[in-house]
From TrEMBL:
Keywords: Hydrolase, Metalloprotease, Protease, Signal, Zinc. Belongs to the peptidase M16 family. This is Putative Zn-dependent peptidase. It comes from the Bacteria. Residues 191-367 form the Peptidase M16 C-terminal domain. Residues 1-20 form the signal peptide. Pfam families: Peptidase_M16, Peptidase_M16_C. Residues 36-159 form the Peptidase M16 N-terminal domain.
């Protein structure tokens, strides 16, 4: 009876927690196609203005890779009304912070200000969209910035080439095969006309979503958005028709080298359905079950019990067209990469042949409930989620019903998805090795 009461109390707490965390928002569209989402939270005098553009590393000419990431930097250069370099001075001078990031699927810019600077944030983002200055001086400046970023985060960073090794071996024809940052020779060869054409195609209001979250008034904010963004001209609709990958039916083996490491790594990567599918949610749960924390099955087995690995991870990288599910481990001492892979496979085989325990299943649900609460605990997190779910998932309401999706996944479904997608003949195995002087 006591256990029943505890379980009931826990269920009521979870339900209350989910209701308490519901995110309210309002949406509207401008005539130029810009979709706008507003979220009001007056608990702190803070506001975030953010724009997510539907453009990422996968977009553009494959002989000009890296343009979206390049524009992440270039669009901070200035505009017709903002002097060169002033963009990044105006924001801190007004008590704000800012950042931007680019994935294979989208580019995201945001500023966080005291709420009395809302109009400033909207003006800055409208300037970026309406008339940025894209000239040779800015291109040359940011070319050096991007090259330095590549040197620091990839060329001279231990394991900095992991994503490159996965992408170029897992994909044959889809542009996910190319690095998000692109090839430096492509950027060097690009003309100013090509940069301007890329901007004109992708950085248009009908290819973006504007999110304002925080200490705002809906009516006033809506009026300000119209004032600052209505003048931006609508662009042609972006049409994408990427080539489809042929399913992997036989294990593919590859070797990649890294001059910055001394300890080798093993990677087993699977190409899976995109992030909007139900199966992608199930694979989120599988990756968390395998390596989500020190009590996960792979951590306990390879690190605690067998003491074979320095680290072990199972990651489900969400992307629009194809997810990447990857197993990764670093050996401890003289343990071979084959042994690590065999032990990881053993745990996946268990999932395929028997249901995970009810206890582990409940633990998984608790982890996803905690993640749900954490992701909605700040206006910055909420703004990012609202933009992502609208632009990349096609349903902004996922911010409130995603948890129910995870709760609806059964142990039987977890077993079925593991069987369907995580067999050795459906993957690429990469030995990621230290590079020797003569290689």
């Amino acid at each position: 009876m006591k256990n029943y009461l505890l379980a009931l109390a826990s269920l009521l707490f979870i339900s209350h927690q989910a209701i308490a965390q519901k995110v309210e928002f309002e949406e509207f569209d401008l005539d130029n196609g810009l979709h706008v989402i507003m979220h009001q939270d007056n608990t702190a005098p803070v506001v975030i203005t953010s724009v997510m553009y539907d453009v990422g590393g996968k977009d553009g000419d494959r002989q000009r890779t890296g343009f979206a990431h390049f524009f992440e930097h270039l669009l901070f250069e200035g505009s017709e009304n903002i002097g060169r370099g002033e963009f990044m001075k105006i924001i801190p001078a007004n008590g704000g912070t800012f950042n931007a990031n680019t994935s294979q699927d989208r580019t995201y810019y945001y500023e966080i200000f005291p709420s009395n600077k809302l109009e400033l944030g909207l003006w800055l983002e409208s300037e970026r969209m309406l008339h940025p200055v894209i000239d040779q001086v800015g291109v040359d400046t940011q070319n050096e910035v991007v090259k330095e970023e590549k040197r620091q985060s990839m060329d001279n960073s231990p394991y900095g080439g992991l994503l490159k090794a996965i992408g170029e071996n897992l994909f044959d024809v889809h542009p996910y095969k190319d690095q998000n940052i692109g090839l430096m020779e492509h950027l060097d060869a690009a003309t100013l006309a090509e940069f301007n054409a890329f901007f004109d195609k992708y950085y248009v209001p009908n290819n973006a979503v504007l999110v304002i979250a925080g200490d705002i008034d809906y009516a006033k904010t809506k009026s300000l958005v119209k004032d600052y963004f209505s003048a931006v001209k609508k662009g042609p609709e972006v049409v994408r028709d990427f080539p489809k990958e042929t399913p992997i039916t036989e294990t593919k083996k590859a070797i990649a080298y890294d001059k910055n490491i001394q300890i080798p790594a093993i990677i087993a990567a699977y190409r899976l359905p995109g992030q909007t599918t139900r199966e992608a949610y199930v694979l989120d749960m599988i990756s968390t079950y395998l390596s989500g924390g020190k009590s996960s099955v792979l951590y306990k087995k390879l690190i605690d019990e067998k003491k074979e690995a320095l680290t072990v991870q199972a990651v489900n990288l969400g992307q629009v067209d194809y997810n990447i599910f990857a197993l990764f481990a670093l050996p401890l001492g003289d343990v071979s990469l084959d042994v690590l892979l065999a032990d990881m496979d053993e745990e996946i085989a268990k999932m395929q042949n028997e249901l995970i325990s009810e206890r582990d299943y409940q633990k998984l649900l608790n982890q996803f409930e905690n993640n749900f609460v954490s992701s909605n605990s700040s206006v910055a997190g909420i703004a990012s989620s609202l933009a992502t779910y609208y632009l990349l998932y096609g349903d902004v309401n996922i911010i409130n019903n995603q948890l129910e999706t995870y709760r609806s996944i059964t142990r039987e479904e977890i077993q079925a998805v593991a069987k369907k997608y995580l067999s050795p003949n459906q993957r690429v195995e990469v030995q990621y090795l230290p590079k020797k002087e003569d290689q």
